Structure formats: C-alpha cells, structure tokens
C-alpha cells in the first residue's frame, strides 16, 4: 500500500488530524480494452480521468497540508490503476486492486480511530454501478463472469460500517457512475464486499457528508485525460469557492461544502453550454449528527473569492455594453472589454453595473448594491430603455 504523505500511524499526542484515503481506477484488466477481458460482462471500458483526478486531489492536500484547518493533514494514502504509469511524484503507487484497497483501508482506519476529533476523508474515482447498493469497481473487477461481484466494493454498507470509526468527522466523495447494468439486474448477488461492516452497539455519533458525482441511474463525467468535473469543482471549493461565513471568519465546513460543489458544477454546465444529457448532476447526502464541522478556517481578514458572472436584461444588448464592479472599498473594476463578463472577486459588497454610449452621451446603469458570497454570483442587470444600438454586420455582397 502507498502512503504518499505522513506517518503510518497517527503519532501519540499529535492532536486531531485529517487522514485521506484516495483511490483512482482507470485501468481495468477484465473490461473492454483490458489485458484479459472477460466475456459477457457490463459494457464498460478503460478510463483516463480517475488516476489524474486522484493525483490532483492528493496534490491539493499535500501542497497546503491543511495548515489552516482545525485538523491539519496527518496522512494521504493513495492507490492508482493507470495505463500510463503508477507514479506519484517520486513514488511508485500500489495498484487499486480489491485486496490492496481492503488492506490500505484497514491501515487508514487505524489512523482515523486514533482521535475522536480526527477527520476521515474517503475518495473513490472510477467505475461504479448501483442497484440496491452502490458498488465501486476495483482494477480486478470481473475476473470471473461466474462471480462478477466477488471483488467489488459495497460502498453503501461501507458507509454504514464507518459509524464504527472513532473519527467524529468523515467525508466521502464518490466520483463514479450510478447506472444499473443488465448484468446487475439479472444477478441476485450484486453488491460486493464491504470494507467495514456495521455492528450492533458500535455506532459513534458522526458528521459524515457524502458527495456523489451523479444521481442514481445516471453517469458521472470526466473529460478525457483531464481532472473530472466533480473533482475539479471539489478542489476549487476546498481552495475557497466553497467558503461560508462563521462569525468573524470564513470557513469551509461540512454543511455547505457539498451544496457549494453542486452550485459550482451547475454553473460550469451552463457556462460551457454542455448538452443536457451530458451535464454533471452532483448529489450531496449523508449524516450530520455532530452538526457542522469546519474543514478549513481562513486567517482573520482573509476573504475567499467568488465567481461573478455579469449579463443584462435584455441579453440581446450584452455585446454592446461594458460591465463594471464598484466595491465598497477601493476603485472600480471594469471588464476588459464589451460583452458578458465572468471574473473572480473577493467576497463582499458591490454595486455592479454596465455602461454604453448613446447619441446623447455615455450612460452608466448601476444595479442595486449586492453582497456576494461563494461560490457564484449570477444576477443579470436590468437595463432600461433607451438601449445601445446593436451593431449587426451587413449582409455579404452577392
């Protein structure tokens, strides 16, 4: 198993820590395109995004080490199955096989158990299927068509079983499809094996949000050879776009992280004009028995950024106006040119507006003062008449 950062054991007296368990599976031995494909199995193939996404999340944790968190980074356990190689920085990472996942999970749980204030982070990116339970597919899935689900991970039972873990805050990110295959419909034994099973009398109070890359019955999406849409939005939100106010400070907390990732992905769907059938649908879920828990706390006086998208009503004149942002303190921030404007601004109060030229002179139209908070502010500006002249290119000469 591969511990790419931290100590194999939670050091005694070290205080609360965040322990991350990250799995990215793109290389599947027994699926279409694999080295030993099994006949008569679900029509699934090789993936490029999961190992890239898993590396990106591991790098984010290690880069900042959660230095501003109530539970600073304690360890990062990483498993990959990547057709392009198993490297992470200067380390060769173990394959994400069923056996390796079970073994590494057990080692990770021991670290998580060391302090009730620890934060346990579980991340899986790869193929998934869902019937009555959510099943995660390791590299060696479908070694035998006679017992397809022998090596799969029963995530639904694993989530319930993690109530036995002493870490009071747990975060689960499942960046995988939740479709139902024909094989899953026909097989009575669908589901696989839990990484930890529930046990009567061993149920600790926990705040344990889940974040799914899609809803039941749909695909999750990752761009070829790039970070998946969910993981990219998750990292952006952990970096600051998922922040919320808590008294005098801004924090990333368990209550708002999932919904902010959901909002950010929805914004990306719209801005990129992704067709409806290919849009990512992020679903937050999970327990919150311990109430909201802070994952990061911004330094006093530090402000997170907000994605600000400015357009106007009617949208037909957007290409003829120049948008601007007037903060409560500081100079005006104009858009670099005419047309719709998407930018990042520090959270706070602004007067947004747009300006344009009319025959009688230069006109500026301010909107009501607004308080903008992460992740996205997207409110068009109502522009009364008279409107700027819309420049229509002349028809081509015949």
Automatic annotation (TrEMBL):
Gene Ontology molecular-function annotations? cysteine-type endopeptidase activity
Tell me which Gene Ontology terms the entry assigns under biological process.
proteolysis
Please name the Pfam families in this protein's record.
Peptidase_C14
Domain named Peptidase C14 caspase: residues: 89-278
Sorted UniProt keywords? Plasmid
State the InterPro entries in the record.
Caspase-like_dom_sf (IPR029030), Pept_C14_caspase (IPR011600)
Which SUPFAM superfamilies would you find in this protein's record? Answer: Caspase-like
Name it.
Caspase family protein
């Amino acid at each position: 198993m591969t511990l790419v950062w931290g100590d194999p054991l939670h050091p005694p007296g070290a205080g609360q820590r965040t322990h991350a368990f990250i799995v990215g599976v793109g290389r599947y031995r027994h699926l279409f395109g694999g080295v030993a494909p099994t006949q008569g199995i679900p029509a699934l193939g090789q993936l490029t995004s999961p190992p890239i996404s898993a590396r990106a999340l591991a790098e984010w944790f290690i880069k900042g080490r959660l230095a501003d968190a109530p539970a600073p980074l304690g360890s990062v356990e990483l498993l990959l199955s990547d057709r392009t190689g198993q490297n992470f920085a200067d380390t060769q990472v173990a394959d994400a096989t069923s056996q390796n996942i079970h073994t590494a999970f057990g080692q990770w749980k021991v670290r998580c158990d060391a302090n009730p204030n620890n934060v346990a982070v579980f991340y899986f990116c790869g193929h998934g299927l869902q019937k009555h339970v959510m099943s995660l597919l390791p590299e060696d899935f479908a070694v035998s068509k006679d017992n397809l689900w022998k090596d799969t991970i029963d995530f639904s039972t694993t989530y319930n079983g993690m109530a036995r873990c002493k870490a009071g805050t747990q975060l689960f990110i499942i960046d995988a499809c939740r479709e139902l295959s024909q094989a899953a419909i026909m097989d009575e034994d669908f589901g696989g094996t839990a990484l930890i099973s529930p046990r009567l009398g061993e149920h600790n109070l926990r705040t344990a949000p889940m974040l799914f890359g899609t809803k039941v019955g749909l695909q999750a999406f990752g761009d070829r050879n790039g970070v998946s849409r969910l993981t990219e939005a998750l990292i952006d939100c952990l970096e600051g776009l998922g922040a919320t106010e808590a008294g005098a400070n801004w924090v990333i907390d368990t209550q708002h992280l999932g919904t902010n990732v959901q909002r950010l992905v929805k914004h990306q769907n719209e801005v990129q004009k992704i067709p409806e059938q290919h849009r990512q649908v992020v679903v937050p879920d999970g327990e919150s028995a311990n109430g909201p828990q802070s994952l990061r706390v911004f330094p006093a006086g530090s402000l997170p950024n907000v994605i600000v998208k400015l357009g106007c009503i009617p949208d037909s004149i957007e290409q003829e106006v120049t948008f601007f942002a007037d903060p409560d303190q500081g100079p005006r921030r104009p858009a670099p040119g005419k047309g719709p404007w998407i930018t990042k601004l520090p959270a706070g109060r602004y007067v947004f507006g747009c300006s344009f030229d009319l025959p009688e002179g230069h006109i500026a139209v301010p909107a009501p003062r607004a308080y903008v908070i992460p992740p996205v502010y997207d409110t068009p500006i109502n522009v009364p008449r008279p409107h700027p002249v819309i420049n229509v290119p002349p028809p081509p000469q015949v």
